[in-house]
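Write out the 3D structure for:
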Amino acid sequence: MEESINKCNNDIKQSADGICQDNLTYDIWKSLGLKEVSPRQLSPLVLAYIGDSIFDLVVKTMIVTKGNTQVNKMNRVASSIVKAESQSKMIGYLEDKLTEEEESVYKRGRNAKSYTSAKNASISDYRRATGFEALMGYLYMSGRYERMCELIKDALDYLESERNSK
């Protein structure tokens, strides 16, 4: 199973760096004339930087597909999901489900020395959230969207069930 998680789909070419081609990331690079970047060459904080945006985009996409409502209400829901405390809970749930490679990326992100801190989160939650975002950035930059979405769906389902049990 781990092998299928770490590889592109059979019909998608894979570069020597393990980057799936014929996907959004690769198309962006190609369309804008940018050079291909291996996620393995990026620092954990750079991966977290892009992972933060990707996770935010996925969450907002899910919220928008639930129907039209006031934007401020959608933003409140999104903010409650993407905040460090929630991401920390999600990665805590996901840790046992990660491959060795994914766990390594998560730990590199979690242990990275950041010079910023969350306004409304503990240092522990902030670091774990940074690791979660680094993992999302790594999967995105690798073109492994299916795996990224699988982890996000599992994490959001867990978060929802935890909130409903209170």
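Residues 40-164 form a domain with the Ribonuclease iii, N-terminal Endonuclease Domain; Chain A fold (CATH 1.10.1520.10).
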